[in-house]
Design brief:
Blueprint (H helix, E strand, L loop, with lengths): L1 E5 L5 H14 L5 E7 L4 H13 L3 E7 L26 H4 L5 E5 L3 E3 L4 H4 L8 E3 L8 H7 L13 E5 H6 L2 H12 L6 H9 L4 E3 L8 H5 L10 E3 L17 H18 L3 E7 L6 H9 L6 E7 L7 H7 L7 E4 L8 H8 L4 E4 L5 E2 L3 H12 L3 E10 L4 E4 L12 H10 L14 E4 H6 L1 H4 L4 H10 L4 E11 L10 H11 L1 H6 L7 H17 L4 H19 L1
Parallel strand pairs: 1-2, 1-4, 2-3, 6-8, 10-11, 10-13, 11-12, 15-18
Antiparallel strand pairs: 4-7, 5-9, 6-7, 13-17, 14-18, 15-16, 15-17
Helix pairs in contact: 1-10, 7-8, 15-18, 15-21, 19-21, 21-22
Length: 551
């Protein structure tokens, strides 16, 4: 069975929901889907591949179409403003290898097997479709655009098309010429053109194959008879609509399929937001999360004793982040965001976004796509930092990695070699997506460590790391580097010794990283004129001795 959709990139998930409903009721049928669009994002392609991977009978072929031939045709409907609406008129040339196609709109829900529809005998007609009942004044309008038999007017949301016959008879040329001729008269775009150009050459089929707004309002069929429901007026994903009772069951059925589709391609990601200082830009942080391309989000705020009043901000964002939750902790626990967050998180993946920071709309989508494509346990991205004092952006230098498939170890070593190791961004869990499985596997090794060290331990234990070259995270740090004071140096050095325990679980070569940590710390101590560097030198000598024994 060949099925075609013509959609813009922002309709991919609605098309995916329709496709999922087809797959659910056509499990034995091999299905080839042709997706025609003017442009498609890498993440949309990734989602389609995920769906294709989960269903063996499904093959998806994407065609990016030059829409310039439709430039002169009107886009005069408030909810249909993209040229893709006209692509079905050019299927004979856009799909030259296909002789027969079932075109479907992306606001449909399939409730039964489509085999009977697919096997419909067109009896010499170019298409088969469902004829709409007329709206008030409908006959007069149909005559005004050039129809001679206004009682038969077909909805173009479901079209069974004989492309071979259309090619042989030059029908594509006829449709495009008709469009130019009546473009100043029509209101319903391609649908009007198809009805005028092919009047008398479209086979009527039962309304159960395209049961839309007018059919449902007139209660022409019972729900158990329907094969395809068409949301031709109210869109079920539009949460601003108060769905009329006559359509409520259909909408609920669609939303159940939509949720199944989303969870199939987007497992739950928990976003942890620690609140430690002022929260003056929390609104911007939450807005950047609510606007993510990736939608299946579990959002958790950890309040470590802030005195700010941000309840109004949370209330404003709950409609867009329905899973938004908040927990309060003692300020002394603020260095354990990762540990506390994973205990509360419901997602299969976790990331941290610090309050007052914000992220690009493709932040989660890119990091998750990288994880799946690289089959990695951890992914991360570049960042810039916004200086509130001078109101300008500064970009962190890119970390140079020679390995095309980096591990966490060589990433941390590259940080050390590039003098970026003391950037606050690289010492936190911000800008990193972790899989729950990776965290739980190594939880005992990093237990009780503060975030700065725990995240480095998890990176160190990442056998495969996916690194985005895109700058997706914006930090609100007021300085790009931090120096340790004497007390921090002592604490950091004590914590650093935990790597000796970690080192027992991983390859001996990791002593190189441990050495680089000690050497960096020694330099900090010398700049601070702190005697700790003498102790560090003693440990470096011990490390030399250990390496000598191993060699």
């Amino acid at each position: 069975m060949n099925i075609a959709f013509t959609v813009s990139d922002n309709y991919i998930d609605y098309m995916g929901t329709t496709l999922l409903s087809i797959l659910k009721h056509n499990k034995e049928e091999a299905i080839t889907v042709y997706l025609l669009t003017t442009a498609i994002s890498p993440y949309s392609l990734f989602k389609l591949k995920r769906l294709e991977k989960d269903y063996e009978q499904l093959t998806i072929k994407v065609r990016v179409v030059d829409a310039s031939q439709f430039d002169n045709l009107p886009l005069n409907r408030s909810h249909i403003t993209r040229p893709e609406v006209y692509f079905r008129m050019a299927f004979p040339s856009l799909l030259p290898e296909v002789d027969k196609i079932l075109y479907l709109d992306s606001d449909l829900l399939v409730k039964k097997d489509l085999t009977t529809l697919w096997n419909t005998d067109l009896e010499g007609n170019y298409m088969a479709a469902v004829s709409e009942p007329p709206s008030e004044g409908g006959f007069d309008y149909r005559k005004s655009i050039g129809m001679r038999q206004p009682e038969l007017y077909f909805n173009s949301g479901v079209l069974l098309m004989d492309l071979k016959k259309m090619r042989n008879d030059g029908i594509e040329k006829r449709l495009l010429a008709c469009g130019q001729e009546i473009k100043d008269k029509i209101l319903l775009q391609d649908q009007d053109i198809i009805n005028v150009a092919l009047e008398g050459q479209i086979k009527p089929i039962d309304i159960i194959y395209n049961y839309g707004y007018m059919e449902r309002q007139a209660n022409l069929r019972s729900d158990d008879e329907l094969v395809i429901i068409h949301f031709s007026l109210e869109k079920p994903w539009d949460t601003s609509l108060d769905v009329a009772e006559y359509n409520r069951q259909a909408v609920n059925d669609y939303l159940a399929h939509y949720q199944t589709y989303r969870s199939t391609i987007e497992p739950l990601i928990s976003v942890i937001i620690p609140l430690t200082g002022n929260t003056q830009e929390l609104k911007k942080t939450l807005s950047s999360i609510a606007e993510q391309t990736y939608k299946n989000i579990d959002c958790i705020l950890l309040d470590f004793g802030t005195s700010d009043s941000y309840q109004e901000i949370l209330a404003a964002h709950r409609p867009h982040l329905p899973a938004l939750r908040i927990y309060r902790f003692d300020p002394k626990d603020s260095s354990r965001t990762l540990e506390l967050g994973f205990k509360l998180a419901m997602g299969d993946y976790l990331t941290t976004i610090v309050a007052n920071d914000w992220v690009d709309k493709d932040y989660l989508a890119t990091l998750y796509r990288l994880l799946m494509e690289e089959q990695a346990t951890t992914s991360l991205c570049l960042a810039s930092f916004f200086n509130w004092e001078d109101q300008i952006f500064r970009f962190y230098p890119e970390v140079s990695l020679s390995d095309n498939q980096p591990t966490g170890l060589n990433y941390l070593q590259a940080l050390a070699d590039s003098n970026l190791i003391n950037l606050p961004y690289y010492q936190s869990s911000a800008g990193i997506l972790l899989s729950r499985r990776h965290y739980e596997t190594h939880e005992s090794a990093i237990a009780q460590l503060p975030d700065k060290l725990a995240i480095r331990g998890l990176l160190l234990l990442s056998q495969k790391l996916a690194v985005s070259k895109d700058c997706l995270y914006i930090s609100s740090q007021t300085n790009s580097e931090q120096a340790y004071d004497s007390e921090e140096l002592v604490q950091y050095f004590q914590q650093l010794q935990t790597y000796l325990a970690l080192e027992k679980q991983i390859a001996p070569s990791n002593n190189r990283f441990y050495r680089s940590e000690l050497e960096r710390l020694s330099q900090q101590a010398k700049r601070s004129k702190h005697p700790l560097n003498q102790t560090i030198d003693q440990h470096l000598k011990k490390l030399d001795f250990i390496e000598g024994i191993r060699n």
